[in-house]
């Protein structure tokens, strides 16, 4: 999918040779679990860094050691992460590495293996989440059902859709369209956009079941 046909709320990471190479490693079915974890953690780190570029900043002046003031910017408002379990939990470490002491909520959603319909099991979110920007974390966006259900949970807890930034590693065009139709105000940042969904609603070419590869090898 070329970037020209991405929905207006979606962006991709710069499609660099490095990113392409990292993704090639984790797509390889012969990549062992330890390498899958190492290289997907590297991609996630790039994704989280890019996601932070969508947070608003305000002008902020500091005094430098030279005694001269410097007018720069500071992040405006507080953030939190929310991971969609299980696979989204793999993205928490990178967020903690770049945002010290960040609060992280969790939403457990599982796709029915036969129908691909998402089922919500529980949500544990910061009490003040309605006052925060939310980085929603899940590496795979297939039909979009799980992401949309997680966004429904966030909105039911008072989060404004325009304060949600959804970070995912591999998206399908169908999933991006479905998220766009449901929540056009949510910013979606994907590392890569693949060709399509299979008849079993897996991303093609994709990398298989992310949670199984990261957690069970
Ligand atoms: C995977 C993935 C997403 C979802 C994507 O999770 O991590 O949450 O499927 O599919 P969708 O866009 O069609 O909803 P899964 O439910 O398999 O659970 P897991 O994280 O435990 O592997
Ligand atoms: N979940 C995954 O882990 N991979 C897919 O391709 C679709 C859903």
Automatic annotation (TrEMBL):
Residue ranges occupied by any Phosphoribosyltransferase domain in the UniProt entry: 14-216
Q: Which CDD domains match?
A: PRTases_typeI (cd06223)
Cross-referenced Pfam families: UPRTase
Q: Per UniProt, what is one GO molecular function of this protein? A: uracil phosphoribosyltransferase activity
Top-level lineage group: Eukaryota
Recorded hits in InterPro entries, A to Z, give: PRTase-like (IPR029057), PRTase_dom (IPR000836)
Question: Per the UniProt record, which EC number(s) apply here?
Answer: 2.4.2.9
What biological process terms from GO does the record include?
A: pyrimidine-containing compound salvage
The UniProt transmembrane annotation reads: none
Instruction: Enumerate the cofactors the protein uses.
Output: Mg(2+)
**Record key words, sorted:** Allosteric enzyme, Glycosyltransferase, GTP-binding, Nucleotide-binding, Transferase
Pathway(s): Pyrimidine metabolism; UMP biosynthesis via salvage pathway; UMP from uracil: step 1/1
Family listed:
Belongs to the UPRTase family.
NCBIfam families listed in its UniProt record: PRK00129.1
Can you name this protein? uracil phosphoribosyltransferase
Q: Which species? A: Malassezia cuniculi
């Amino acid at each position: 999918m070329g970037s020209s046909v991405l929905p207006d709320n979606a962006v991709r990471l710069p499609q660099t040779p490095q990113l392409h190479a990292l993704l090639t490693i984790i797509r390889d079915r012969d990549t062992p679990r330890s390498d899958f974890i190492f290289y997907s953690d590297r991609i996630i780190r790039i994704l989280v860094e890019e996601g932070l570029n969508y947070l608003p900043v305000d002008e902020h002046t500091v005094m430098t050691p030279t005694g001269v003031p410097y007018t720069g910017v500071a992040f405006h408002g507080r953030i939190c992460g929310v991971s969609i379990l299980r696979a989204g939990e793999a993205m928490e470490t990178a967020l903690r590495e770049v945002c010290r002491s960040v609060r992280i909520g969790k939403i457990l959603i599982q796709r029915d293996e036969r129908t691909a319909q998402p089922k919500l099991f529980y949500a544990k979110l910061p009490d003040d989440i309605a006052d925060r920007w939310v980085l929603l974390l899940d590496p795979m966006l297939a039909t979009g059902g799980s992401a949309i259900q997680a966004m429904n949970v966030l909105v039911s807890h008072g989060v404004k859709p325009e304060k949600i930034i959804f970070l995912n590693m591999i998206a399908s065009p169908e999933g991006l369209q479905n998220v766009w139709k449901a929540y056009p105000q949510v910013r979606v940042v994907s590392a890569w956009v693949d060709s399509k969904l299979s008849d079993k609603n897996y991303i093609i070419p994709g990398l298989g079941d992310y949670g199984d590869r990261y957690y069970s090898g």
